[in-house]
């Protein structure tokens, strides 16, 4: 096991208190730091850099976790993160999960300015407008990553990207693709349109059917999907901004699809259409 503090850090340490406060949004915003819990998230954080700086700055680990995940401890130290051994009670105090996995990292904010996303000429983007549930936000981010999307945009009416539940639900995908935060939906749509991106609003009451869009071969170009609130979908003024309002067809008896499932279907439909037209890399490529 790589060298760490010889004794577990005290529960009364200012470092533990500071880490514990990162569960609160206002403290995260003030410090521009957030928590990443579990081996997958910490491993991805250690491998990530933003603006030339390592994203992972501090790591708390139980003795058992430090031995089991010695490679992660080594990666954390290699990027300059401060590593603390901690007893299970300290990890439980810092963690926001019921059953912590023994590793809790502290990471720098890593969101990308919206202008940089536009400058990269994205071909597939997920826009989360009015999405309030952190688990859904993180899962949509994971779906976008898996589908090979170029970016995710969280509007100013959506949940905090760094909410611990959102970070966990992304299962490391937060560290894989650019994410812009706090962008007004009107600005997001206007900017993407100016960049040559077609805007599709996903809504169960949409006039256009996803199957029909695929059959008409209209989805091969740069596309941004706008996803709305879990309970009431997209408001009319947001739907009116889109080039088309598209519904996922329900062929069985299900009343509807949840947000994350619908997002996965839509993003993969676009990814497939773009691959077929030679406009996007394969989502199966590593």
Give the overall form: elongated
Tally of strands: 13
Task: Please state roughly what percent of the residues sit in beta strands, choosing from under 5%, 5-15%, 15-25%, 25-35%, 35-45% or over 45%.
Answer: 15-25%
**Cα-atom radius of gyration:** 20 Å
Protein described:
The strands form three sheets. Strands 9-8-7-12-10-13-11 form a seven-stranded parallel beta sheet. The protein has a four-stranded mixed beta sheet with strand order 1-6-4-5. A two-stranded antiparallel ribbon has the order 2-3. The model is unreliable at 1-5 and 279-286 (pLDDT under 50). The protein has 286 residues and is of the alpha/beta class. The chain is built from 13 helices and 13 strands. α8 (134-146) packs parallel to α13. It is 38% helix and 20% strand. It starts with 13 loop residues before the first helix and ends in a 10-residue tail after the last helix.
């Amino acid at each position: 096991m790589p060298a760490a503090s010889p004794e577990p850090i005290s529960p009364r340490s200012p470092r533990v208190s500071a880490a514990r406060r990162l569960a609160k949004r206002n403290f995260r915003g003030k410090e521009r730091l957030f928590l990443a819990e579990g081996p997958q998230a910490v491993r991805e954080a250690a491998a990530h850099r933003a603006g030339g700086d390592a994203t992972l700055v501090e790591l708390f680990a139980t003795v058992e976790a430090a031995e089991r995940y010695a490679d992660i401890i080594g990666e954390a130290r290699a990027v300059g993160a401060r590593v603390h051994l901690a007893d299970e009670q300290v990890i439980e105090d810092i963690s926001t999960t019921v059953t912590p996995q023994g590793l809790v990292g502290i990471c720098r904010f890593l969101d990308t300015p919206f202008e940089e996303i536009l400058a990269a000429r994205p071909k597939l983007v997920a826009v989360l407008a009015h999405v309030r549930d952190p688990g859904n936000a993180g899962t949509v981010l994971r779906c976008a990553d898996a589908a090979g999307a170029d970016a995710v945009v969280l509007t100013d009416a959506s949940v905090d990207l760094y909410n611990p539940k959102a970070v966990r639900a992304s299962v490391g995908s937060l560290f894989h693709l650019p994410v812009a935060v706090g962008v007004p939906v009107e600005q997001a749509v206007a900017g993407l349109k100016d960049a040559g991106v077609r805007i599709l609003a996903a809504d169960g009451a949409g006039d256009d059917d996803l199957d029909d869009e695929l059959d008409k071969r209209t989805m091969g170009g740069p596309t941004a999907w706008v996803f709305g609130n879990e309970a009431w979908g997209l408001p009319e003024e947001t739907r009116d901004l889109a080039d088309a309002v598209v519904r996922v067809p329900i062929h069985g008896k299900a009343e509807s699809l949840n947000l994350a499932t619908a997002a996965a279907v839509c993003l993969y439909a676009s990814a497939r259409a773009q691959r077929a037209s030679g406009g996007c890399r394969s989502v199966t490529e590593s």
